[in-house]
Each structure stands twice: as structure tokens, then as C-alpha cells.
Amino acid sequence: MQLTYQRQDLTTQITYGKPLARSIEDVLPDNRHVIILTNQRYYDQFFQKIQQAFPTNDIDWYIARNQLYCNHLEEMMEFLQFLGRFPSSERYLFIAFGNEGVVQLTGFLQRTVMLSGEFWVIPPSFRSFFSALVENKMICKAPYNELLQQKNLPTHIFLDQTIIQKQNDGKLVDLQMFIQAGLVSDYAFLHQLFKNFPSQKQLHTASFMAFVEHMTRLYETQALAITSYGTIYEKAFYLTENGHLLSAYMKRFLGLLLQLFWNLEINDSTFRVENFMVWLKKLGYPIELPERLSISEYLENVLTLQENQKLSVLSEIGETGASCFANEKTMIRAVERYQKIISKI
């Protein structure tokens, strides 16, 4: 199947439901030197499969760090050094086959390096797929400090179900992206997720592929609203002592939840947040905050970060409203409500 995806004046062709080699064969330009950016884990798992998809091309691999925010300044400089040995007379394919940081790094550098070539993405997870759909490609100095930005979308995205299905340990993280989109832009879709994935058993046996087209259309109209929700709360964990007790994905997940709870404090809503939290726990999400994390320091960091960027607000679940600044009282009430609910379930 194919979808055409557009953000502003940038267009992407999405191919899914076909074997990877056949999908690529249909559009592969002649005599392109292929440069693939990946993470060690995906290189180890899929080296042979990816090589076989480019049987007549020269291929070079660059292996980035496994961390979520590998699109940082140090990694960028190392990749530029790696590219220094390639002649500018050739034409290239820059292919991101890695996590979200790899997609960001590849998309940024394809726009800025002197080598001529296209930008493609082969996502090994749905979170990488959604990262490819956001036109802002970032280089960061730290996870909470965005430094450089270029607008870029890949020419092609090849979504191979056989690759994504092997990432069973990442299904909770992938589902988080679907849940976030439902919360921000489509309440009916959030309810559909609740019905389709009521427990861990259904989560690990069912596929997300049926939702690809719907999610693509949500991102086409609201990509930045979806992905920015919860980011300030996420970044505050990196600045807080003992924030390292949370993985990068848990920082992102809890940031989403805590902004949601703050949002519910400032807007009247009929949303049954306790039922929502029970569902998340049943799915296996670790929803508790670390005991050694200072809540007061964490909230101070949220307040500091929002000085440069207001917090996104949902007027209703599934509907974005006007952004605003948080105040300390509503933030404290939101965290107290959060902790009270998780202590009961």
C-alpha cells in the first residue's frame, strides 16, 4: 500500500504492506552510493536484510549510539568526520534505519552537508516512523536543549512489518505514541485503542499496522501539536537530581501524563482519568514516580523551562486549545492528584 504525506511544501511517499526489497526496487535510482545511519542494536539484528535490499549498490554504515537523543552535537561532528572521505562528485542515498535520534540526525545532515543525495527512512519501530513524519529535524546540545533545526521530510518511508514485529520489547513505547495522538487530536481514536488493546495479551499479539493510515492523517494536520505535548515536563526530568533513575522513554511517558494531569486541573473535563490510569497500569506501564526524585525541584524546573515556551493545553481530550503558562499551585495540585490516583490503583 502507498500513502502520500504532506506537511507544508514537503512531501513523502509511504510504502507499507510489501516486502522491503521489492518496495525499494521499485524506486531505487541507478548508481547511488548508499549511506545508512543506524544504532548498534538494529545493525546487529538486520544487517543482512538491509544489505540484500540494495544488491547492486555500494553501501557504507554509520553506527550511532543507542541512546534516544543521539541527535546531539557530538554525534553530528563524528558523522561529519565520517563523511569526509566520500567524494562530492557522487550522488548518495542517506538512509535512516534507527531510533528517533537517528531519524533526526539523518534528516538534519542531509539538508546541510555538501554531498548531494536523497533522504530515506526505513523505520525499525513506529516511534521512528512518527519521528520521520515531523518536518522539524533537530540537533540538540542536551535532551533539554535544542540547538539547530532544519525542515526536512524523507522522500520515501518504507514500513516493513517483519522488521517492526521483531521489536516486541518496544511495543509499549510504540503504543505510547498512538495514545499521545489520541489524547491530543482524536478522542474517538483513543477510545478505539482502549477497546483494541485492553490488556498486555492483546498488546503483544495484535498489530498496529491497521492504524497506519489514520495516524498518518492525524500527523499530517497536527504533527507538531501531538509531538510537543508533554515535552517540557519530559525535559524537566533531565534537569532534576535523580532523574537518571528514569529511562529516556519513561521521562517522555511521565512527562506526557503529568502535563495531562496539569491540563485537567485548569480545564473542566468529563474525562475519566482514573479509568485511563488503570488501563495504563494493566498494560504494564510503570506509572510511579521514583521515591528519590524531588518533586519540588522537578516542578521548579518545569517552571523554568516554560519561561521560553508556553505549555500546550487541550480544551477537551482530543482537541487542542490555546497555550498558556502554568503556575505553581495548579502544578502541585496536579501532582498530588496523580499520586493519589496511582496509590489507589
How many structural domains are formed by the residues? 2
CATH level-four homologous superfamily name of the largest domain: Dehydroquinate synthase-like - alpha domain
Count of extended strands:
11
CATH architecture of the largest domain: Up-down Bundle
Text of the CATH class of the largest domain: Mainly Alpha
Mean pLDDT: 95
In one word, what is the shape?
A: globular
Which value, in Å, is the CA radius of gyration? 20 Å
Figure out the total of helices: 15
What share of residues is helical? 40-55%
Protein name: 3-dehydroquinate synthase domain-containing protein
Organism: Tetragenococcus halophilus subsp. halophilus
Structure write-up:
The protein has helices spanning 20-25, 40-52, 73-83, 100-112, 126-132, 161-164, 171-185, 187-196, 200-205, 212-228, 231-239, 248-266, 273-283, 295-305, 328-344; strands spanning 2-7, 10-16, 33-39, 59-64, 91-97, 116-121, 136-142, 145-151, 156-159, 314-316, 319-320. By secondary structure, the chain is an alpha/beta fold. It folds into two domains: 2-164, Rossmann fold (3-Layer(aba) Sandwich); 171-344, Up-down Bundle (Dehydroquinate synthase-like, alpha domain). The strands form three sheets. A seven-stranded mixed β-sheet has the order 1-2-9-6-5-3-4, with helices on both faces. A two-stranded antiparallel ribbon has the order 7-8. Strands 10-11 form a two-stranded antiparallel sheet. Helix 4 packs parallel to helix 5 and helix 14 (295-305) packs across helix 15 (328-344). The longest helix is centred in the C-terminal third of the chain and has 19 residues, at 248-266. This is 3-dehydroquinate synthase domain-containing protein. It comes from Tetragenococcus halophilus subsp. halophilus.
